[in-house]
Amino acid sequence: MKKYSFLAFTFLCGTFMHAQTLESAIKKTDNERFDLATGEFKALIAKEPTKAEYYFYYGENYFQADNLDSAKIIWEKGLSLNPACLLNQVGVGKSMWYAGDTAAANKMFTASLLTSKNKNAEIIRQIGAVYVYAPIKNLNKAVTLLTAATKLENKNIEGHLLLGDAQLELNPTNGTEAMKSYNAALDISKSAKIIVRKAKVYQRAKNYELANDMYKEAQELDPTYAPSFRENAELNMFFNQSTRAIENWKRYLELNDSEYARYRYATSLFSGKKYCEAVTEFEDIHQKGFQNFYSERLLAFSIYECNAKDAKAPAELYQKAMAASDRFFKIVPEDKVIAMDYKYRGLLLAKMGSDSLAVVELDRAVTKDPENSGELHGELAKLHLKAKKYDLAIAAFNAKMRQDSTQLGAAEYYDLGRAYYFGPKNYMLADAAYAQVAKLAPTYAMAFLWRGRSNAQLDPKKLTWSAKPHYEQFIATVPVEERASSYKNFVIEAAKYLGDYYVTSPEKNTEKAKAAWTIVKELDPADKQAKAYFGIK
Description:
- With 537 residues, this protein is an all-alpha fold.
- It has a domain at 1-189: Tetratricopeptide repeat domain (Serine Threonine Protein Phosphatase 5, Tetratricopeptide repeat), CATH 1.25.40.
- It has 29 helices and no strands.
- It has helices at residues 19-30, 34-47, 52-64, 68-81, 86-98, 102-115, 121-133, 139-152, 157-170, 176-188, 192-204, 208-221, 226-238, 242-255, 259-271, 275-287, 293-307, 315-331, 339-351, 355-368, 374-386, 390-403, 410-422, 427-440, 445-458, 468-477, 488-504, 510-523, 528-533.
- Helix 2 (34-47) runs antiparallel to helix 3, helix 9 (157-170) runs antiparallel to helix 10 (176-188) and helix 20 (355-368) runs antiparallel to helix 21.
- It is elongated.
- The relative contact order is 0.03.
């Protein structure tokens, strides 16, 4: 979301008695000091409740704070006060566009443009901005409109910035045209806001150092421009510069220490995978009365991620996360629920030992986003395997592979092999799965053991002795000093097979048979087969 210039609107709906105060309120919105701006807008409206233009920028303040519902109410109020004030008409159209009713929104926009005879640059800019920043974009139309706006008012900084943003969205891999527009804005007046725009181009190009330098330049030019510190912090977080990120967030919060600012800080911590810190921040703003479905969603996600790798994490933590998820589902609009919401409920339930309920939630996640459900199928496979529902586990693994066979890692191929081995007893496919494990993790000895076992099942009468090379590789992979540890029984199993091979197969070899049976005897002197081979009673 972007903000707009104060100077552009002074002739839209009449003259202002309190223009300087209005400029102050808009500047606070621009600086993301939404609570303070709200207070100033309320004061303006209390003095002049029929000034429709106040309502547009008041609504814009709510919109920039991610409160579209309140913005819509304010814009509708302004439009009812003065239908001739086209800004509020654009605002109502904007709320329609963001709600997904683009046809109705376009009617509002077209009416505003026709009424103003396409000569009002601020109306054009506001409509163009919707086409640029909304989830549903119309970038070609935006460039056309914003180019026209810059021709009408060539000295309007916001017009050049908006045009640059549209050009960058239209051609995200080439920032040349966008930079020309940003530089045109700089030629009018140098400001931190413009430099931040240029920094974001370099950030998009993953040029961390140059982007960071430009954020610093913006901060030096205007130490009170809070977004420069927030954007810099998010850049630092993205490139794992957590110390720098925290420093920038502290500066941002010094300038803007509202609950909403804390909320943005918490979401940045989550995005930067600082999950435990995010939990603390989300819980703090909730205690202070700030809550929306996004904050409840990310609190649930963060609690899980903070503790997922701790096998000793108490169940109470996951119950707390489920409580946040429950609150989320009570307040979230149905169309805002995403697959991740069901996914994390499933993961939390699995951690709490409710595997059957976890499967239900993960299945919902798959249904919600079948095109990107590979990871979900992997989680389902684990739960089915744990419940010894081998056919379901196999189906889940295969569903994941259908999306992208490279998604399966060594551990998942290992589990797939187990599912084939113990479920339908399809030893050929089990062997194929373990072969993938050996390929991906060539030092993992158990892959070769299970290849040996699978081939032994495929050749129960030992006609081809197909298990031999795999048992040999297993013994070769286990360090000698570790044979007597947790590998002991497995090494004995493999050595017995090899000992039998060198005694009874066509490739009889007394020396190798003795070596194999010696391994068995050393690991288990009481083993009857080894004692029989060596003639020990």
